[in-house]
Amino acid sequence: MTQSDSRNAQPLPDHCLDQLFREARTYYKWQDKPVSETTLRALFDLMKMGPTSANCSPSRLIFVTSPEAKAKLKPHLMAGNVEKTMTAPVTAIIGYDLTFYERYDFLHPHDPAGPRSWVEGKPEAIQKTAFQNGTLQGAYLMMAARSLGLDCGPMAGFDNAGVEKTFFPDGQIKANFLCNLGYGDESSLFPRLPRFAFEDVCEIA
Ligand SMILES: Cc1cc2nc3c(=O)[nH]c(=O)nc-3n(C[C@H](O)[C@H](O)[C@H](O)COP(=O)(O)O)c2cc1C
Question: Of all helices (H) and strands (E), which one includes residue 69?
Answer without folding.
Answer: helix 67-73
